[in-house]
Amino acid sequence: MTYDLWYWDGITGRGEFVRLALEAGGIPYRERAREPGATERTLIDDMQSPRAHPPFAPPYLVAGKMTLGQTANILYFLGEKHGLAPDSLEGRLWVNQLQLTIADMVTEAHDTHHPISADDYYEDQKEAAVQRARGFRDERIPKFLGYFERVLTGPDAWLAGGERWTYVDLSLFHLVDGLLYAFPKRMGTVASHYPNVMALHARVAQLPVLQPYFSSDRRLAFGDGIFRQYRELDAA
């Protein structure tokens, strides 16, 4: 089966977590909003089309007659169906729990530059963003990365504890990649405190199954998505 992945064109965003799993798993998919002739209206029209289980927002995955929304939900499905998660129910729930924790941090990272309203421009809430970013840098980055550092048992460990990566390792890679882009000064200061996390980031970056994707135009650069680089929001 070839899946249809729907997400905003030109933005890494939450869609990248799903892309990484599809690409690393060698799973056939089409990114429908990036096909020739597609526009933002194409995505909106599809999202609002009648279906039994409509998605609230992108990303969503169409798998035959099923439509799956929410990043963690999509990854749970792909993990079980395509061997990207542990075989046991306990293991699958564990990586889902970790994925949901990543989702919490992703939301907080987004809110550093849109602390008041996602519908208003960053420039209209810059003062609040500076304050929100300070708390994120000083308190939340250490809290979240410290947690994942504790989960990892060593520099060669994967989050699920097995001998092979799961989808949540790919997601932690993208989370760290986003933090390195948006907060380079802060990450330059604290990265050494989380050697296991940074080792995992480096190992995912070198996975042979991901090299064709990393070198292709399918992989989008950071920009106007969740992770944004504003100099005034970053500090060591």
From TrEMBL:
GST C-terminal domain: residues covered: 88-233
Alphabetized SUPFAM superfamilies for the sequence: GST C-terminal domain-like (SSF47616), Thioredoxin-like (SSF52833)
Record Pfam families: GST_C_3 (PF14497)
Domain of life of the organism encoding this protein: Bacteria
Residues in GST N-terminal domain copies: 1-86
InterPro entries: Glutathione-S-Trfase_C-like, Glutathione-S-Trfase_C_sf, Glutathione_S-Trfase_N, GST_C, GST_superfamily, Thioredoxin-like_sf
Transmembrane region(s): none
PANTHER family noted in UniProt: GLUTATHIONE S-TRANSFERASE
Protein known as: Glutathione S-transferase
Biological source species: Achromobacter kerstersii
